[in-house]
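W.,

You were right to be curious about this one. When I first looked at the sequence I had no strong expectations either way, so I just let the prediction run and decided to look at it fresh. Below is the sequence, 549 residues in total, followed by the output.
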Amino acid sequence: MVIRRLVFGMMAVALGTSCAPKEVKYGLTIVTTGCASANPFQGVQYLRIRVTGDGITTPPESLTPASTKTAVLPEIPAGTNRVIEVRAYDNDPAAGGRVVSIGKTLPFTVPDIIDGEIPEADLQKSVILRQVGVWTQPVSVNERDRCQSMRVARAAHTATLLPSGKVLLAGGFNFPPTNPNRVALGQTEIFDPSTGLFTPAQEISFTLTDGSVDKQVKAFHTATLLNNRQVLFWGGERYQLISGVNVVAPLTQVLVYDIDTNKFTATQRSTPPAIPRSQHRAVVDKNGKVLIVGGFRFNTSGTGPRLVPVNEVESFDPLDRNGAAPRIVAGVTLPRVETTAAALKQGEFIAVAGGHDGTALKEEVVFFAWDDTSAVFRQVSQMAPPRIATPGRRAAAGVTFRDGSDMLMLGGYSDVTVLKPVTMPMPTSEIVQAGVQTVAKGPDIGLRGELCAVTLQDGKSVLAVGGRTADSNGMMSRSETTTVIVRNDPQGMPTTQSAPNLTIGRYLHTCTLLLDGSVLVTGGLNETTANPTGDVLTDAWIYTPAPND
């Protein structure tokens, strides 16, 4: 049975020197329906509602049988980062009831002094229940049986979790109707998990000194959340039709998106010249500094391939007193394409592993650390740099593992073919261990490259999603639907467990860990043996792990 209800709760009476005591009612809408046959309320017998947040040691909660069709919102104490969580059980949790579905609000602040009226919209909260352990599509608070999707089909785009808990989706490419060539995108949109909606945001553009607007399109760029509530957009590529051939054109622009004003600005640099860079990596360390490494650039020599690996490593400090601008890391040459990079030891180091230099796969693992004296990253010298297993790998997913201590490299390809008419996907994984500067073998995850992976909220588990696979000779490629969870067993050894498959296979998609611990997957390229060009997707899916507590 579908149940829709509105539950109410009272905030504690607030006292202020200039205002009278007030009683404030918070309303909560619980969405108990799903779309495309998903039913988060199937078999639910009990609802538990609890409130968490800063300074709350014992969360206030209420437990109500679902048959009563009513529930009470516990008192919400004043404070910051208040979250209302709703868990639906198949039995009384005190009798071993299992969590069927779960939902949370985005964090909000309850003021301790109320001076004037609080807008009604701020008092009305919503929770969308999602089944645990399965993939479900987003639904909105107002359209509870209609699956929500992105407004634009995208692959090779970015998805950035903002401090508000919303997700900024930007750029990528798709295939317009009747056009077989890739077209880079400049549109952005924001996904709000609390409403389930995708809404348009500022198009990628910035204002020039003469007042005109430079509109940007880009795919294979990076978008990195900075510690000053801005998002750093670096490089990418667009496509130019030259003599009937759709040619890749790497981009030089470095843009900063301000979350609060919903505007882009361009960083300024004339010496040295800006470096075109696409399919690179950008990683932020514990201090908020960003390392940029690898990718393709133009070949300016006039001979050989049109695209060549970028040699220079760059850094970006948003707090640079001389003006935030890219800086080249002096004395380091590191040509890497389709490399893997992540911050290790809780962000103390950044590791760069795998990839190729345009000719051969690379096995060395290189570490970087921020140097306060020179105000730029430096390469960490090593007597015997660790190496990944022969023959190396490219286009592997890389995420932090084991509470941020290590980097887990998953899948990839064992060939160095730049244009990829043949792909040889790898089933293996490896663990770069920063503490002892070694590389250990990880579990097999199935043949796949160009997958996405995300570290789950517990810091100990990794969800690997989709990718691109092929037959035994690498000729027949297709998008992968399978999902794998990697975690440590009781003996501390990494192992895998299967997770539900995606309905549609995809690669060049995004995986984003949301504030409530669920994972958002958006877009990508669905390539099949019958359709090798592939379809660019608009759909979005959410995987919600079962809670550990």
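Here's what jumped out at me. Residues 158-543 form a domain with the Neuraminidase fold (CATH 2.120.10.80). And, maybe more interesting for your project: Confidence is low (pLDDT under 50) at residues 1-21.

Coffee later to discuss?

I.
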